[in-house]
C-alpha cells in the first residue's frame, strides 16, 4: 500500500515537472498578472462608490468588475491557441478556462444579487468574500475533491452520544439555511418595492404590509432551510421553549416594541413624513419636533431640524402621548403672546398685531389672523396674536420669529411700548438704639442653669 502511494506521488511529481504542465503554469501565471494589472488600472481610473442608481452606471460598474476576469480569460484563450498550434496537451489550460469562466459568472451573479437586495443588505459590502467562498466550493467540486472532504468531515462528530451530528452536517445546514434566507429576503424586497409604489394605498399600510411580508418570508425561509438541511424540526421544541421563556423574562421589551410597531402601522396613527413632537419628554414641546423618517421593527427614526436622528422605541409611542401635527389636517394654529403698557391704547395694539401677521406668505388668509386681549397683568396688558399655517413640515419657529420681528418693528413705528418688569428700591435711615427700661437695668443677672442633662 505504501509502495503504491509512493509511486502515485512520484508520478504526480513527474507530471508536474513535465514541460507542457510547466508552460501551462506559466500561461496561468501570466493571465493572473494581466488580470491584476487591469484591475489596478481600473481602480485608479474608476471609483465604484461614485456609481449612481442609474442603470447605465450600474452596467458600467458591472463591466469594471468583470474586466479583470475577462482579461485573464483572454490571455488563457491565447495560450490555449498556442498549445493547439504546437499540438501540446492543454488539459491544464482547459481546466483553468472552466474555473475562470465559473469565477466570472459567480462574480456577476453576486453583484446582481447585491443590487437586487439593496444597500441595506450584508451582501452589498461583502461581495468579494461571498464570491471567493462560492468559487472555492466550485473549484473543489470541479476537481473531484468534494467527496473526500465530505467523508472526512462526516467522521468529525460534534455531538457525543448516539445522535449523529457531524461537522459536514453543520456546514451543509449553514449553507442551505443561508441560501433559503437570501432567496426569501430577495422575494420580500421585491414585494416591498412593488407595494411601496402603490400610491392609492396609505403609507402606513404599505409599510406594514412590506414589513410583515419580510419577517414572514425570512422566518419561513429559515424553517424551510433547517428542514432541507436534514434537521428534524420537531427536535427544536426545546429551543423554541427556551426562546419563549426568554421572551417572557429577558426579551419582553423587545417583543413589546416589535408588537407595538405593527400596532402603529395597523392603526395608521403615524407614518413616514409625519411631523411629531413628544409632550411627555424633557425638552419636547410644540417648538421641538421632528419628521418621521422610517418605521422599523423595534423603533421609529425621527429627525429634527438639526439633522439628528432619534431612535424612539415603538412602545413609547404606544404608552406615552405625542403630538402628530399632520395626523388628519396639515393646518395648525400658532399663538404669540405680547404685553403692552397701560399707557397705550389696546385697540391700536390689537390692530397692529393683525397687520404684523397679515403679510407673511405662509400664514393663511382663511381663517384670517386674529388678536385678543387676554388679561391685565402686573406689568401691562397681555395681548395675543393667533394665526394658522398649512405647512408645519417646513418649520414652526421660523414663522414665530418672522412675526415677532414684524411686531417689534410695527410697535416701534407707532410708539407702542412693550413694558419690562420694574423694581423700586428705598433707602431707609439707620435706627437709633433705645435706652433700656429702668426696671430691666436694675434687675440682677438671671441665674445660670448649671444642671447636667
How are strands sequenced across the largest beta sheet? Answer: 4-3-2-1-5
Gross morphology is elongated
Alpha plus pi helix count:
14
Ends apart, CA distance between termini: 109 Å
Oligomeric state as shown: single chain
- Tell me the series of helices and strands, N- to C-terminal: HHHHHHHHHHEEEEHEEHEEHH
Beta-strand portion reads 5-15%
Helix content: 55-70%
Largest beta sheet, briefly? 5 strands, antiparallel
pLDDT average, as an integer? Answer: 76
Features:
single chain, 453 residues, Alpha-Beta Plaits, five-stranded antiparallel β-sheet, 14 helices, 8 strands
Please give the structural blueprint:
Layout (H helix, E strand, L loop, with lengths): L1 H15 L2 H27 L9 H31 L5 H27 L9 H16 L3 H9 L12 H30 L6 H26 L8 H12 L3 H16 L7 E4 L11 E6 L3 E6 L4 E5 H6 L2 E3 L7 E9 L5 H13 L11 E7 L4 E9 L7 H17 L24 H5 L11
Antiparallel strand pairs: 1-2, 1-5, 2-3, 3-4, 6-8, 7-8
Helix pairs in contact: 2-3, 3-4, 4-5, 7-8, 8-10, 12-13
Describe the structure.
By secondary structure, the protein is of the alpha+beta class. Among the domains are: 135 residues, no CATH class; 54 residues, SH3 type barrels; 82 residues, Alpha-Beta Plaits (2-Layer Sandwich), CATH 3.30.70. A hairpin with a 4-residue loop joins β7 and β8. α8 crosses α10. The longest helix is centred in the first third of the chain and has 31 residues. It is elongated and about 130 Å long.
In short:
The protein has 453 residues and is α+β, with helices and mostly antiparallel strands.
